[in-house]
């Protein structure tokens, strides 16, 4: 398999993980804002 | 919410094309693909430090603590993106020059920049009185930003460096990239900017929540 596609897959996994982490932080902050 | 979804989809597409297209700098080889990530990170670093300076000036004008909060969030993000740009740059250096770090003028100037903004947070940590901390760090942030164009754009071009300086814009101020590569690069620049704005927004809201919490504890 082309090495480029391995790096692409790793980069995509990192991006997807990072995106959903930031999204979850955003949602938690929204909940705290509604509470306060 | 919609812009987050658009960011997710477009960034995923950008990542795909950054590896599927031919390497942007054929003479450098596959390692030149890092420029789709390294340059936008350095770009965000400059934007964030500029925003930190802008909000620091606003704080000194208005004495409103919310501007200090925005300045510190921008500086934090600027530092994070500066570290990311340094790491991706070191990875490129390892592949191209054989070592991660060789005190190239570009690496040295970024290292100094990291120290300058590291000292900004050390200063903030050393002052307990809020108004004094905000005023001192606002003045520091303004002076710190004065060094940014000098360290990022001027110093590395004044002395011989291994760092490619004409990947995007040539000495004649003409774009060196075109077609699909140019499209992916500028998309990456725009998407990293949107990601930064999102992170900045969250950071400012967190600062506001912390402030509210502290006020409630005081009562």
Helices and strands in order:
The complex is a heterodimer of chains A (36) and B (219).
Chain A: H1 3-35
Chain B: H1 2-20, H2 35-62, H3 65-97, H4 105-126, H5 130-158, H6 179-218
Helix pairs in contact in B: 1-6, 2-3, 2-5, 2-6, 3-4, 3-5, 3-6, 4-5
Can you offer a commentary on this structure?
The complex is a heterodimer of chains A (36) and B (219). Chain A has one helix at 3-35. Chain A has one helix and no strands. Chain A starts with a helix and ends with a helix. Chain A has 36 residues and is mainly alpha-helical. The mean pLDDT of chain B is 90. The A-B interface holds A 3-5, 7-8, 11-12, 15-16, 19, 22-23, 25-26, 29, 32-33, 36 and B 4, 7-8, 11-12, 15-16, 18-20, 30, 33, 198-199, 202, 205-206, 209, 212-213.
Spans of at least 5 consecutive residues with low confidence of chain A:
none
Estimate the helix proportion of chain A, in percent. over 70%
Ranges of chain B where pLDDT stays below 50 over 5 or more residues in a row are: none
Mean pLDDT of chain B: 90
User: Number of DSSP helices of chain B?
Assistant: 6
Q: What share of residues are in beta strands of chain B?
A: under 5%
Q: What is the helical fraction of chain B, as a range of percent? A: over 70%
> Count the strands of chain A?
0
Shape of chain B: globular
Distance between the termini of chain B: 35 Å
Greatest interface by residues involved: A-B, 18 and 20 residues
Q: In angstroms, what is the radius of gyration of chain A?
A: 16 Å
Number of helices of chain A: 1
Oligomer: heterodimer
Helix vs. strand class of chain A:
mainly alpha
Order of helices and strands of chain B: HHHHHH
Q: Give me the strand/helix succession of chain A.
A: H
Integer average pLDDT of chain A: 92
How many strand segments of chain B?
0
